[in-house]
């Protein structure tokens, strides 16, 4: 399979839609982003690995006011796998209500279904050390 320009656009829009739905509290639309059995791994930022759309929705609601007020995604890079899945790597910036922010990298596995492209696995990796800084700085 070769990714078409239309596939690339659809996947980029899928990844971008994440912030709009979460920030707007439209958690009942997560099926538009993720497979029903999605694995959403936030262990690197102090959370757990969440299994399934329903559990992901519950986890977002449980965070309450600790949720960022803004999820922003940039720098989407797509790599095609031989099995038809796509690996997407993107940068995320989360803005908290107190104005502080954090940067992460999203590592996604994306699959095509009857409903279109969906994220089946997401690993969220924290960015803690700037380029050139010693580890642990």
List the helices and strands and how they pair.
Layout: H1 5-23, E1 34-41, E2 49-51, H2 53-63, E3 70-80, E4 86-95, E5 101-113, E6 116-126
Parallel strand pairs: 1-6
Antiparallel strand pairs: 1-2, 3-4, 4-5, 5-6
Key features of this structure:
SnoaL-like, single chain, alpha+beta, six-stranded mixed sheet, Nuclear Transport Factor 2, Chain: A, SnoaL-like domain-containing protein
Roughly how many Å apart are the termini? 43 Å
Largest beta sheet: strand ordering: 2-1-6-5-4-3
Q: Largest sheet, if any?
A: 6 strands, mixed
Mean pLDDT: 93
- The portion of residues forming beta strands comes to 35-45%
Q: What is the total tally of β strands?
A: 6
In the CATH classification, which architecture applies? Roll
How does the overall form come out from the CA principal axes? globular
* Tally of domains: 1
Helices, by number, come to 2
Share of residues in helices: 10-25%
The CATH class name reads Alpha Beta
Low-pLDDT runs of 5+ residues are none
CATH fold-level assignment:
Nuclear Transport Factor 2, Chain: A
* Structural class category: alpha+beta
Please compute the radius of gyration using only Cα atoms. 15 Å
Taken in chain order, the helices and strands follow as: HEEHEEEE
């Amino acid at each position: 399979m070769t990714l078409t320009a239309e596939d690339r656009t659809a996947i980029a829009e899928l990844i971008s839609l994440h912030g709009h739905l979460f920030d707007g509290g439209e958690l009942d639309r997560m099926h538009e982003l993720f497979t029903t059995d999605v694995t959403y791994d936030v262990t690197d930022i102090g959370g757990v690995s969440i299994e399934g759309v329903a559990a992901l929705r519950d986890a977002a609601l449980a965070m309450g006011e600790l949720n960022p007020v803004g999820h922003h995604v940039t720098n989407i890079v797509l790599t095609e796998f031989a099995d038809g899945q796509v690996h997407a790597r993107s940068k995320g910036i989360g803005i908290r209500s107190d104005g502080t922010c954090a940067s992460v990298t999203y590592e996604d596995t994306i699959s095509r279904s009857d409903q279109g492209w969906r994220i089946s696995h997401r690993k969220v990796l924290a960015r803690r050390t700037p380029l050139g800084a010693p580890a642990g700085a």
